[in-house]
Amino acid sequence: MAKIIIDKDIPYIRGVFEQFTSVEYLKGDEISPKDIENTLVLIVRTRTKCNAKLLEKSGVKLIVTATIGTDHIDQEWCEMSGICVRSAQGCNSRGVLQWVSASLVLMCEKLGWKPADKTIGVVGVGHVGYLVAEFAETWGFNVLKCDPPRAEAERLSASDGFVEFETILKNCDIITFHTPLKRDAKYPTFHMLNVNNVGQLSKDTVVLNSSRGEVIETQALLAHIGRGGRCCVDTWESEPNISIELLNVVDVATPHIAGYSKQGKATATAISVKAVAEYMTLPIKDWFPSDVQKNRAKTHPIWSDVSSSIIKYCDLVGETETLRSNSDRFEELRATYNYREEYF
Fold first, then answer.
1. Residue 26 belongs to domain spanning
2. pLDDT digits (tens, 9 = 90+) for 73-93
3. Are 39 and 147 contained in the same domain?
4. Is 97 in the same domain as 226?
5. Do both 181 and 70 map to the same domain?
6. Is 86 annotated as catalytic?
7. What is the pTM of this model?
């Protein structure tokens, strides 16, 4: 019988496949080569490093990650080895949008800023970055976008709002990162913001990172804060062993949960279930957790409404205090996080 191994912290998925095949739930960062010797399908999160070391002696033919990121998977090796890889692209877009929105509200209140007076740079204009840019423009921010691969592929330029990263660094009051982590690529994003270029920022620039921790060098953020800059951080270098020095000086600190909404997590699981069902030809159609309401919102709430309401759904001050008081429990806080409700 074909076997499926599932990261035990993926929500809503227990009981979906048991009637069709053998299923085992394991802690994501503890899945070993021995565990998957007779396994056909892996359903994972970012904590499972899917590479030759883990997979070369396994029977795995399909890896589904219930995340938008795939940098934990050696896709080139998987392709050469005949292993199919699927991800949940776009699943958490509105969840991250609302974390960014809460950060913007908090920082504008702290600094006495109004959207119409400020320029926000969106670095990475995919599923999440596109939404952030769209909503920011609606709220009155001047928006600049940076996405070299997309700009090249679609022939986008300054007339479309797309500029070089250096322009973002020199001209934005707020910079928010939404890129995948790319090391060996034409346009690498590893340490995109680093100690060599962080000095180009204005001293009061606000930096937000909810993409991947390694997109920004920790020392660069510390240097920026040392000059009077402000930072909101959800994704950290070397998770879960994050920099306590950085944790204690940022304005917002959360344990990689920006996209952790009920709807985002349910959608990620639904996408994963569909991928496995199609691969294994299982009679599962249009599955979605019955106890989660899908996000059907199509409206853009006005800035004043967001400012007055978002703390009910995303209390970043409280979450920052929790992480600072429990820095050694990063993974536990992430795994047990109470998923937020998407309301726009």
1. 3-87
2. 999 999 999 999 999 988 999
3. no
4. yes
5. no
6. no
7. 0.89
